[in-house]
Design a protein that fits this description.
Elements: E1 9-14, H1 21-35, E2 39-44, E3 59-62, H2 70-84, E4 88-92, H3 94-103, E5 111-114, H4 124-133, E6 139-142, H5 145-150, H6 153-156, E7 159-161, E8 183-187, H7 196-206, E9 214-218, H8 224-233, E10 240-244, H9 249-254, E11 258-261, H10 270-277, E12 282-285, H11 290-293, E13 300-303, H12 308-319, H13 322-334, H14 341-359
Parallel strand pairs: 1-2, 1-4, 2-3, 4-5, 5-6, 6-7, 8-9, 8-11, 9-10, 11-12, 12-13
Length: 360
């Protein structure tokens, strides 16, 4: 019997099933694992919010309803895993995988840690925590070569690069050019890391030249008020919009002409992957995860962090040249195969069976 066809019991650990990128990836992986007949559980260790839908057979456990304090959750997780006896525990994001590794110290259960952000941007104490706990992980999964190179040779030897999967909805939702809006779209939480202030500044520098174009930033977060004030200050009311979170990201991407990302650091943007698969040209800051996805001038444009002028120039190149936008879009569609859920899940299954084979 082919190993990939055997059934597994998998526990995913993450902070919540809220509207973040890691949560989206876990929901897609969990649903696909479930559809292949594997038994899947998702443990939400820190928050109770559930934004992404999962299949009925996927069990979602809100751990804060079982244990309220940090210490009680540590012991709860240890007991729970011992009772459930999963084939593997997959912990997403730095804080969660450090918590999970600490909780399961001394147990036989293999933990795959999934790094989601560029560790170079982390504080010294978070870097120290990684250094102390990652040796106890059975394996580490990262999204880019740049992130892998951050870690010690010892950790790199047990590290795999696996891209994020794309929501299969994108394959059925590509919109004809004539039905698209003259719109730049960005999808990211309204957090300092995402640097939407620079994005708004960049658009403001060329907005007067292209009065029919608008910038729409989907997402929610603590910077909303600051960004709203910046829009007023730059007299971009009616041109820049902050509609909040949406469960209609795919249709909104499909009807846009350009995708933008202005982050100061990243792991790998899920929304950027979806935009690529939908044939949108991308303008992004040059951060971890973008250079794996974007060849500058080929399927998008990369600018340096905080370079509002460079981003404005890239916008203008695309806005003023429809043929270039269409050409870049076709190039991006050709890259879809790298992000299909079947491709990504097979990489995860191969890794899990490799780990189980090494244990036997």
């Amino acid at each position: 019997m082919n190993e990939l066809s055997k059934k597994l019991k998998v526990i995913f650990c993450l902070a919540s099933l809220g509207s973040g990128g890691a949560e989206r990836v876990v929901s897609l992986l969990a649903n696909k694992f479930d559809s292949l007949g594997h038994q899947v559980q998702i443990l939400c260790l820190k928050y109770d919010d559930v934004y992404y839908k999962v299949n009925d057979r996927v069990e979602v456990v809100l751990v804060t309803k079982e244990a309220t304090s940090y210490c009680s959750r540590l012991f709860w997780l240890r007991r729970y895993v011992k009772i459930e006896k999963p084939d593997v525990v997959i912990a997403f994001t730095e804080g969660v995988y450090c918590f999970t590794l600490f909780s399961l110290l001394g147990t036989k259960f293999p933990v795959i840690a999934s790094e989601r952000l560029d560790p170079n941007a982390m504080s010294w104490n978070r870097k120290l925590l990684k250094k102390l706990l990652l040796p106890y992980a059975k394996w580490l999964v990262v999204q880019t070569q740049e992130i892998k190179k951050y870690f010690s040779p010892q950790i790199q030897r047990k590290t795999s690069i696996i891209f994020n999967p794309v929501n299969e909805e994108v394959l059925n939702y590509r919109v004809k050019i004539e039905n698209k809006r003259e719109q730049i779209i960005s999808v990211a939480r309204l957090y300092p890391q995402k640097n939407q202030k620079m994005l708004i500044d960049a658009f403001g520098r060329i907005a007067h030249k292209y009065p029919s174009w608008q910038l729409v930033i989907y997402g929610e977060g603590p910077l909303r008020q600051d960004l709203e004030q910046l829009i007023i200050k730059k007299q971009l009311g009616g041109r820049v919009f902050l509609p909040g979170r949406t469960d209609k990201v795919i249709p909104e991407l499909a009807h846009s002409k350009i995708f933008a990302l202005s982050s100061n650091y990243e792991g790998m943007s899920n929304s950027m992957i979806e935009a690529i698969c939908m044939g949108l040209p991308v303008v992004s800051t040059r951060v971890s995860g973008t250079e794996e996805l974007i060849q500058n001038g080929i399927n998008g444009f990369l600018v340096e962090r905080n370079d509002a002028d460079g981003m404005a120039q890239a916008f203008e190149k695309l806005i003023s040249n429809e043929k270039l936008r269409i050409h870049i879009g076709k190039t991006n569609i050709e890259n879809t195969k790298f992000f299909l859920i079947d491709t990504v899940v097979n990489k995860w299954l191969e890794l899990i069976w490799k780990i189980k084979g090494n244990e036997s």
